[in-house]
From TrEMBL:
Gene3D superfamilies: 3.40.50.1100. Its main location: mitochondrion. It catalyses: D-cysteine + H2O = hydrogen sulfide + pyruvate + NH4(+) + H(+). Belongs to the ACC deaminase/D-cysteine desulfhydrase family. This is D-cysteine desulfhydrase. Residues 30-332 form the Tryptophan synthase beta chain-like PALP domain. SUPFAM superfamilies: Tryptophan synthase beta subunit-like PLP-dependent enzymes. The active site is at residue 90. GO terms for cellular component: mitochondrion. One of its GO terms (molecular function) is D-cysteine desulfhydrase activity. Pfam families: PALP. The keyword Mitochondrion applies. PANTHER family: 1-AMINOCYCLOPROPANE-1-CARBOXYLATE DEAMINASE-RELATED.
Amino acid sequence: MLSKGAFSPPDWAKHLNPAPSSIYCLAQLPSPIHRWDLPNLPADTQVWIKRDDLTGMQLSGNKVRKLEFLLAEAKLQGADCVITIGGIQSNHCRATAVAARYLDLDCYLILRTSKVLVNEDPGLVGNLLVERLVGAHVELVSKEEYTKHGSEALGDMLVEKLRAQGRKPYLIPVGGSNSLGTWGYISAAQEIEQQIEAGTCPRFDEIVMACGSGGTTAGLALGNHLSMIKSKVHGYTVCDSPDYFYDYIQGLLDGLHAQVDSRDIVRLVDAKGLGYALSSTGELELVKEISEATGVILDPVYSGKALHGMVKDMVCDAKYWTGKKVLFIHTGGLLGMFDKLQQIQPLTGNWRRMQIM
Ligand SMILES: Cc1ncc(COP(=O)(O)O)c(C=O)c1O
């Protein structure tokens, strides 16, 4: 943990360029894969789950895999602080804040919130509590400002400001989803391949995950395509549209000179529902039902929506999923649930005053 080492890509990824030269060990890996007995599956369908929600505590979830590469580059470049950007409950921003502190880097977070809240203390709910405990500098912008300027320009503005103060900032894009960050899930594919080879789990017909900024899906789809895993990869998009993500993922693949077409290596399905980070009652009911049935708690913004999308798919096309072995990637994000307390409370009735004899 926290050591930096040389990185050597798997043989099947040696042609990808650029390849990272070093990696920081930040995550608890390999993350386990186990059977996940979901209720109401089509006949003979088996679901397994890869627990990337268990890659750490403060550093839990999928983002830590990308940060292992991104922060190694930041250090190599002599940065003294990092900047990143996301929604007010961004798991990526929380993971970046923690990892940066571990590596003695200051962290600046540009967080998007509503116009009515942008001038107020953002509070301590969920990811914000961790970010503020580890001393990240929180810079709020409104959704309107975010749309007007774009995440890149806002990041660049802060880079300029910090440089003018003599700092050496390293800018990480939304979700850590650039070509370097994509190596996080190319490596995760290698990890799955090794787990299959070791007999920890079977070969899978299908791999399912949430797609929020594209890097996780791009890395896994590419790793799956190049390695011997060769499953069908399904990314359930929780914002924007599948077409947007086919193009975005293509950019990440082209950035690695992968010479593959995104549409050939992943199926993207719209699972946005009411919109990014907006939960329908049906989605939250499913999260509650699955928590109660299996003990695995999904987050409401990413994996909860992905599972909701997958279940819908299984109902619409039960024939396709019948008899399949499916691997669901749980990408973490539990802290986001604290932002949904009011909505989730009516679904949780199990308490009473103890009868003392
Ligand atoms: C918990 C969680 N799961 C999934 C995702 C989606 O991953 P990606 O941004 O790489 O598409 C994110 C971030 O966007 C996340 O925070």
